[in-house]
Automatic annotation (TrEMBL):
This is Amidotransferase. The chain crosses the membrane at residues 6-23, 30-48. Keywords: Membrane, Transmembrane, Transmembrane helix. It comes from Streptomyces fumanus.
Length: 54
């Protein structure tokens, strides 16, 4: 696991925590959607950068 893939996965999980927190606080739906798109992109990029796929 490289440093960049680890960083992307950690940032993605941090954003998932933000999604859960913002949903509990009943923040605007568009903000939650924006965070979920960013979290999904970070997680997918981090997983695809893993050495396992080569």
């Amino acid at each position: 696991m490289t440093g960049i893939s680890t960083l992307l996965i950690v940032v993605g999980l941090f954003l998932v925590g933000g999604i859960i927190s913002f949903a509990k606080q009943q923040m605007p739906r568009s903000l939650i959607v924006l965070l979920s798109v960013g979290a999904a992109m970070c997680l997918v990029a981090g997983i695809l950068r893993l050495e396992v796929w080569n």
